[in-house]
Amino acid sequence: xxxxxxxxxxxxxxxxxxxxxxxxxxxxxxxxxxxxxxxxxxxxxxxxxxxxxxxxxxxxxxxxxxxxxxxxxxxxxxxxxxxxxxxxxxxxxxxxxxxxxxxxxxxxxxxxxxxxxxxxxxxxxxxxxxxxxxxxxxxxxxxxxxxxxxxxxxxxxxxxxxxxxxxxxxxxxxxxxxxxxxxxxxxxxxxxxxxxxxxxxxxxxxxxxxxxxxxxxxxxxxxxxxxxxxxxxxxxxxxxxxxxxxxxxxxxxxxxxxxxxxxxxxxxxxxxxxxxxxxxxxxxxxxxxxxxxxxxxxxxxxxxxxxxxxxxxxxxxxxxxxxxxxxxxxxxxxxxxxxxxxxxxxxxxxxxxxxxxxxxxxxxxxxxxxxxxxxxxxxxxxxxxxxxxxxxxxxxxxxxxxxxxxxxxxxxxxxxxxxxxxxxxxxxxxxxxxxxxxxxxxxxxxxxxxxxxxxxxxxxxxxxxxxxxxxxxxxxxxxxxxxxxxxxxxxxxxxxxxxxxxxxxxxxxxxxx
Length: 513
Known about the structure:
Elements: E1 4-6, H1 13-29, H2 36-59, E2 68-77, E3 82-88, H3 93-109, H4 118-137, H5 141-150, H6 152-162, H7 167-195, H8 202-205, H9 212-229, H10 238-245, H11 248-258, H12 260-273, H13 275-280, H14 282-301, H15 306-325, H16 330-361, H17 372-375, H18 377-390, H19 397-412, H20 414-439, H21 455-473, H22 476-512
Parallel strand pairs: 1-2
Antiparallel strand pairs: 2-3
């Protein structure tokens, strides 16, 4: 196949990375004695092995080609022309690594925080990890949809079983929002399947030219699924509830990986499959992105709950991601992809940090804190770094992502770029104000005697700290993965734009005649 490079390793690396967590979940399941310590060590060992197994994706990746790499392709259901088809390119490979890293951190941070149904909890974490990786690797639409939907089940349980007081409401709301959007996407997939000669092969579909009207309808069908996952305004309301009620590990998965799947869907499917519609809908998408940036930032100013504030900040930050993607230029798209990675690192770290202090105080109300820097200096230092990264301080990862997005945004639409800058200003305000109220001011008497971070918690946050400065100081080590793939994607979109203009001209001539 011209669009792929067959696996240059001697083993199926993508299948290994996808199904190692499933194997770990099975080992936990058959542990009939339900030894809590053994369950935790199996989960931790499995997540570490999965991360190690994913490292060759980083070290053996060929950055000079846009073609899919580490490909695995086998006939699965011949009657429907369905294949077990896996592969990654410069757009997806980094998110596989992020998913495997987050699995380790989620296990570590839950070590003492989760005290009931421990066996079931770690099974849910491992299965969620497996399904998320599968989404980023799937090149068959049927397989992709299976992973996309399967992921909802363990995530629904993580929120609904191990969440806060309103966990049932938050879990059902999360499930219904994402399920309704996914059903509309399924309709779009079936239409593409029939129009493409009854194939679910995503790469084959990308070689087809679909009618403009059909593209518009399909764009909105996919939008229903991807916009909810991002989440874009106004279908974002499930996110604050899910984040607030979810256990720390659930919030980390949601923030670091799950909501990236919506933006990934726009990149992988909407732009290359529906280039004409994507260009036509660009003004709408830029508008929605700017609204999300400003709305999310303003709402953060009024929050009293730590997790809810960080959740609404995700709405604002992901608005930058969609702004970059639909700027439809190299700086914007690459900035959007990098910012997806950055947001996963920084916001995931912030939720980890909130979980650490919540385990000690059992409160997330900002008013219950104050003077925490005196009681927990190491913790305060970590939180300060992640706060500065969240507001885009130079030399942190947040800066380079937002800088590239704004470059692309200004090139695409000057007003979009100007308005997005206001979101950065407001973002700096609410994050610094949050830090002041929690870590400075007068020490709350209830906080006296708090124990600072232990070794396990430090190990959980340390990888995120390293990535903040690694990406911030040397971003090209990550940007270089996506250069060729993004260039190829934009060529596809722009050629679609040319086809659209030609079709419009043809329609005008027919009307004149």
